[in-house]
Design brief:
- By secondary structure, the chain is an all-alpha fold.
- The longest helix is centred in the last third of the chain and has 43 residues.
- 52% of the residues are buried.
- The N terminus and C terminus are likely disordered.
């Protein structure tokens, strides 16, 4: 397939008039706001889980399901949305998704029990999942070539900013109003989105003939595979992975149904997900890079608040203030990254972006217990700039050489790859922190037990201090205090290892990114270039 053959149907026959451009921009802008709302809702509850737990009378184990219940069904809708968009048209799918999302947001906010909240959050994630990939598809099908980088920059800002500001916004909403407004806030925003998409969002027509021979078996297998995989990734770290029978069983189920799903998609005449896009090398490499950028984005957003909360004992608002550097760096970099990708071979900014993101993470490998806002400022700025550049370049590499009829399905796979990469990254990082903390703590304990002179001197000094304070059992109090100090130090060292692990992943991705073919956007001629 030549570039000309691919580009010809994608490029519009004539330049958009000002009126058409305004309508396209308003419709796409409304969809982007909805996309931001859907991505934000994943993280907005992160800083307010204790308040929600008290409000619905949930246990510590149950409250984690408020996030998990949203994510597991969402991964099914993301790839399914491509098929539904081809069947009904993008506008109808988006309006239905947004309407259901608003209704489920209200019901979640009104929840009086944890069971009701888990059910409504699951439906909210499933129905609202279509609002994320449909925006991506519109950017590469409705926009003329010279506008696509601009659309990619807008999407990149949304995808990166929403997880970053989510916990901060959630913490402030809970503090100012109540935790229920974490969900009620979607109503006014959602109504604006509905109006904008209904008024200006007519981008394409559906194909009702696709309803004939709908692959119900493929849907069942895909749903089982993706939900099992997501559950394993979300819950595996806290349940000791395969030592837990449920995790082991679901991992086996995911492996089996994953193979069946691939076979069904490649052999059925009308598959729900078109996997033939993987024959395109740039798409395959781009999908892998998208997974890595997702791991870097969500992994960095996970590690820093965890460190600040567990080691520095920061409040939600203090964590948000510290994290603002990351959001600002991404916001400022977006337009620059768009220009860089437009003017050069996208492989070069993708390589540079992953190098910067990796270096930003590696800067924190020597983190100490005293690190705060200023120490993490450089880490966040470097990572934020790198992730934004890498993400926009990756979008261009992934989609630029695909024929137009594959883009709607491909957009679902790209978003699924980002989410799955993020989930895998979080699972790997959470496991690394747990295991390395235990390893470092045991190492320090063994040194104490073998008569390390320095450790014994510290213990003696602590015991003397406790005796001066009038503690009834100075030796016991000294052991407890010293154990707490060792636990803190072990945790800090474990976080340093996790930052390094994330950096290594980015460095490897930088190398792999050079294997992509030159994208159509790398050359000056105006084919499917921008």
């Amino acid at each position: 397939m030549t570039d000309a053959a691919i580009a010809a149907p994608a490029a519009p026959a004539k330049t958009l008039s000002q009126a058409d451009w305004t309508k396209l921009f308003l419709g796409f802008g409304a969809m982007v706001i909805g996309q931001f709302m859907a991505i934000l809702d994943i993280q907005i509850v992160a800083a307010s889980l204790p308040q929600i737990q008290a409000g619905v009378g949930a246990s510590a184990d149950q409250v984690s399901w408020i996030q998990t219940a949203y994510l597991i069904p969402e991964v099914v809708m993301i790839p399914l949305s491509g098929y539904l968009s081809r069947l009904w048209g993008t506008q109808k799918v988006y309006l239905a998704s947004c309407t259901g999302f608003i209704i489920m947001s209200v019901l979640t906010g009104l929840s009086s029990s944890i069971d009701m909240m888990i059910i409504t959050r699951a439906l909210q994630g499933f129905i609202g999942g279509a609002m994320i990939p449909t925006v991506f598809a519109v950017a590469f099908t409705a926009f003329p070539p010279e506008r696509r980088i601009t659309a990619s920059v807008i999407m990149g800002l949304i995808v990166t900013l929403a997880p970053t500001v989510g916990p901060t916004l959630g913490g402030h909403l809970t503090e100012w109003l109540s935790w229920r407004w974490l969900f009620f806030i979607n109503v006014p925003t959602g109504l604006i989105v509905l109006f904008g998409v209904a008024r200006w969002g007519k981008f394409d027509e559906g194909d009702p003939s696709l309803s004939k021979g709908f692959d119900w078996l493929g849907l069942a297998v895909m749903a089982t595979f993706l939900m099992s995989l997501q559950f394993v990734l979300e819950e595996g770290a806290k349940n000791s992975w395969f030592q837990d029978d449920i995790i082991l069983g679901l991992a086996v189920l995911a492996a089996v149904t994953g193979v069946v799903f691939v076979w069904r998609s490649l052999t059925y005449k009308n598959p729900i997900v078109e996997l033939r896009a993987f024959s395109n090398r740039n798409f395959s490499i781009g999908l892998l890079m998208t997974a890595v950028s997702g791991a870097s984005l969500f992994g960095g957003t996970f590690l820093l608040p965890q460190f600040l909360g567990r080691v520095r004992h920061y409040s939600a608002s203090e964590v948000g203030t510290t994290m603002v550097i990351s959001g600002l760096s991404m916001f400022i970099t977006g337009p620059i990254a768009g220009r860089l990708v437009r003017k050069t071979d996208p492989r070069l900014p993708m390589f540079i972006g992953f190098l910067l993101a990796g270096w930003g993470m590696y800067m924190a490998h020597g983190v100490t217990k005293d690190w705060g806002f200023w120490e993490f400022a450089g880490v966040q700025a470097c990572r934020g700039v790198g992730v934004m550049i890498a993400m926009i370049a990756t979008q261009q590499i992934t989609m630029s050489t695909l024929p137009p009829h594959m883009i709607k399905n491909a957009s679902g796979l790209v978003n699924l790859s980002r989410n799955t990469g993020g989930a895998m990254g979080l699972a790997l990082l959470a496991t690394s922190i747990t295991q390395q903390t235990a390893l470092y703590y045991n190492d320090m304990t063994s040194r104490l037990q073998t008569g390390n002179v320095e450790a014994q001197g510290m213990m003696a000094g602590l015991a003397a201090r406790m005796a001066q304070l009038g503690v009834s059992d100075p030796d016991g109090a000294a052991r407890k205090a010293f154990s707490g100090m060792m636990q803190q130090q072990a945790t800090v060292l474990a976080f340093g290892d996790s930052f390094t692990l994330l950096a290594i992943g980015c460095f490897i991705a930088a190398g792999i990114s050079l294997l992509a073919k030159p994208a159509a956007g790398a050359a000056p001629p105006p084919s499917d270039a921008h």
